[in-house]
Amino acid sequence: xxxxxxxxxxxxxxxxxxxxxxxxxxxxxxxxxxxxxxxxxxxxxxxxxxxxxxxxxxxxxxxxxxxxxxxxxxxxxxxxxxxxxxxxxxxxxxxxxxxxxxxxxxxxxxxxxxxxxxxxxxxxxxxxxxxxxxxxxxxxxxxxxxxxxxxxxxxxxxxxxxxxxxxxxxxxxxxxxxxxxxxxxxxxxxxxxxxxxxxxxxxxxxxxxxxxxxxxxxxxxxxxxxxxxxxxxxxxxxxxxxxxxxxxxxxxxxxxxxxxxxxxxxxxxxxxxxxxxxxxxxxxxxxxxxxxxxxxxxxxxxxxxxx
Length: 307
Known about the structure:
Blueprint: E1 13-17, H1 23-33, E2 39-42, H2 47-54, E3 58-59, H3 63-69, E4 70-75, H4 80-84, H5 93-96, E5 101-105, H6 111-124, E6 129-133, E7 136-137, H7 139-145, E8 148-153, H8 156-166, E9 170-176, H9 180-208, H10 213-221, H11 228-239, H12 248-264, H13 271-284, H14 295-301
Parallel strand pairs: 1-2, 1-4, 2-3, 4-5, 5-6, 8-9
Antiparallel strand pairs: 7-8
Helix pairs in contact: 1-7, 9-11, 9-12, 9-13, 9-14, 10-11, 12-13
């Protein structure tokens, strides 16, 4: 242990790694609600940390220092490979762990992957690192408003350590053992992908039929077609604005997790393979870095069905 790690390994701080569109506002809410708990932050891009430091967070020089100061570490990264990159080495997370630490994975990953990670980290640290999976839904606006739906999986004692932190960011619900949160998020993403896909197809049909899209979205929102997806994405479809709020390419891995869950439970699906194929096609077409609503543009490019 380095000199700067001495005396803080059992500290009760909270660390956050991953300060992008979701992680930064989640951390801002944590800072407002943390009371006397120190909040430590780290990101590959130093500029991502600056505003949070101004708001009261502690800038960690590396992941090791962050882990040494924190009893709970929240990770908001795209997938497990990005987390794996930060675990090992002299400056990695594991090098700073000297006391029980709860690692809260808010990333959307495969249920099997997070279970394997937990088993390995528990073995490598003599049980000091305990993993909780807590993927979130609600988008950047939910992250800003602390209104995220947070789907939590893990052992009861581990979840209890994470809940005060997660409650500052939204509404956490403990769904079962480790991996349960990821199964719930896979189901969530199936519904989101299917809904935005249906809205996109409806928008293209309506616009080509001469309907005003803004009026259509208002009408849909007042009936059974109304949804949070429509409320947050409807104007994007009206404006044909696919500036990124949630990159479409991430939906492919989320739907892959849903397909794996369906296979593991022997569930026959029809909608899920169709939306996975659609998002795969638009990513292959170079649209993956745009918002998930870009499925509208993809639909516009498709050949009409044969009659």
